[in-house]
């Protein structure tokens, strides 16, 4: 995806980011074809591409993006991506017996149904963004996510606090965290 991390016009953000995710999926497909023992390998993904205040976010699976908006004192932290779990994608999932609590979509090299969701957003001064894997979001309660974003004085402090919280909560999964503070 790195080759797609370049300056683009704001209107092109969703197209370029979608191409980046498709290129990553295609590269995975080629790798699996070259090494069949890797069949079944896959990953979730959350990615961001920015042009000025315009942002496009891509997600596949249960890696997430959160936004803290409205200032650190009184702002709210909102999940701005949707998890691709069966229980979130099936209408009235609570009424469906034995519905698996598994990923319905992830990057795995296949061509069917692996397209990312693309979310567009306009950044405002003071916004704080969090991109993370489920190793964080599955183990750290929302109020702790908010607190780390709202009260940290640097992105590194926020990252360190969030990772420590996930590990303290017993998170056995990988914990990947990116925090972005938008300047005033």
What can you tell me about this protein's structure?
- The structure is a single chain.
- This protein is of the alpha+beta class.
- The protein has two domains: 1-61 and 105-123, no CATH class; 62-81 and 125-184.
- It has helices at 13-34, 86-89, 134-137, 142-151, 155-168, and strands at residues 45-51, 54-60, 64-69, 76-79, 117-122, 128-132, 177-181.
- It has a four-stranded antiparallel β-sheet with strand order 4-3-6-7.
- A hairpin with a 2-residue loop joins strand 1 (45-51) and strand 2 (54-60).
- Helix 4 runs antiparallel to helix 5.
- The two termini are 29 Å apart.
- Pfam families: PP2C_2 (PF13672).
- This is Protein phosphatase 2C.
What are the low-pLDDT stretches, counting only 5+ consecutive residues below 50? none
Distance between the termini: 29 Å
Strand order of the largest sheet: 4-3-6-7
Mean pLDDT: 86
Total number of helices: 5
Q: Count the strands?
A: 7
Number of domains: 2
Strand content: 15-25%
Per the principal axes of the C-alpha atoms, what is the gross shape?
globular
Rg: 17 Å
Output the structural class: alpha+beta
Helix-strand pattern: HEEEEHEEHHHE
Fraction in helix: 25-40%
Mind summarizing the main beta sheet?
Answer: 4 strands, antiparallel
Which key features would you list for this structure?
184 residues; three-stranded antiparallel β-sheet; PPM-type_phosphatase-like_dom; PPM-type-like_dom_sf; Protein phosphatase 2C
């Amino acid at each position: 995806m790195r080759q797609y991390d370049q300056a683009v016009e704001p209107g092109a953000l969703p197209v370029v980011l979608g191409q980046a995710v498709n290129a990553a999926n295609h590269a995975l497909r080629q790798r699996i074809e070259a090494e069949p023992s890797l069949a079944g390998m896959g990953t979730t993904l959350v990615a961001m591409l920015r042009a000025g205040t315009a942002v496009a976010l891509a997600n596949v699976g249960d890696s997430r993006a959160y936004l803290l908006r409205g200032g650190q004192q009184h702002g709210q932290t909102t999940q701005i991506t949707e998890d691709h779990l069966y229980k979130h994608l099936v209408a009235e999932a609570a009424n469906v017996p034995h519905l698996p609590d598994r990923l319905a979509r992830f990057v795995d090299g296949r061509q069917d149904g692996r397209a990312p969701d693309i979310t567009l957003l306009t950044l405002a001064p003071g916004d704080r963004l969090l991109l993370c894997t489920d190793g964080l979001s599955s183990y750290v309660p929302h109020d702790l996510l908010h607190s780390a974003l709202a009260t940290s004085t640097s992105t590194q402090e926020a990252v360190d606090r969030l990772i420590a919280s996930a590990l303290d909560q017993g998170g056995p999964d990988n914990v990947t965290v990116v925090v972005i503070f938008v300047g005033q």
